[in-house]
Amino acid sequence: QVQLVESGGGLVQTGDSLKLSCAASGRTFSSYAMGWFRQAPGKERESVAAISWSGSSTYYADSVKGRFTISRDNAKNTVYLQMNSLKPEDTAVYYCAAVLAHSPGKTPKLPGAYDYWGQGTQVTVSS
């Protein structure tokens, strides 16, 4: 069982930066692939980024590539999402998710691939 708690969201202006954190409980965090997703009002939840349990592999959605960076610190049981050059279309509730990964390079992209979810943190980017 893994419990996830996101933090770091807020209200920012276009072009600003935010760093989201997701703290995980449990002693086997390093065995889990982690993902960040977001959901805007009236839209489906979409993948933003993912990172393998080792941190050696990452995935980014085209819409955030070059602006967002996912990273993890297995010693702190935490995954991060550094978001730069934020745009109004980045406004959404951001969720982190975890899945036990048997492959060191696994970076699941679909919401259905994940077993554990945080409660979400709101990110609002004003124009």
Total helices: the number is 0
How would you classify the helix and strand content by structural class?
Answer: mainly beta
Report the strand count.
11
Distance between the ends = 40 Å
> Whole-number average pLDDT?
95
Strand content: over 45%
Overall shape: it is globular
Contiguous uncertain segments of 5+ residues = none
Q: How is the biggest beta sheet arranged?
A: 7 strands, mixed
Radius of gyration: 13 Å
How is the quaternary structure best described? single chain
Residue share in helix:
under 10%
Please trace the helix and strand order, writing H or E for each element. EEEEEEEEEEE
Description of the structure:
The chain is mainly beta. Helix content is 0%, strand content 48%. Strand 5 and strand 6 form a beta hairpin.
List keywords for this structure.
127 residues, mainly beta, 7-stranded mixed beta sheet, 4-stranded antiparallel beta sheet, 0% helix, globular
Question: What is this structure's SSE topology?
Answer:
Blueprint: E1 4-7, E2 10-13, E3 18-24, E4 32-39, E5 46-51, E6 58-60, E7 68-73, E8 78-83, E9 92-100, E10 116-117, E11 121-126
At a glance:
By secondary structure, the protein is mainly beta. It is built from no helices and eleven strands. It is 0% helix and 48% strand.
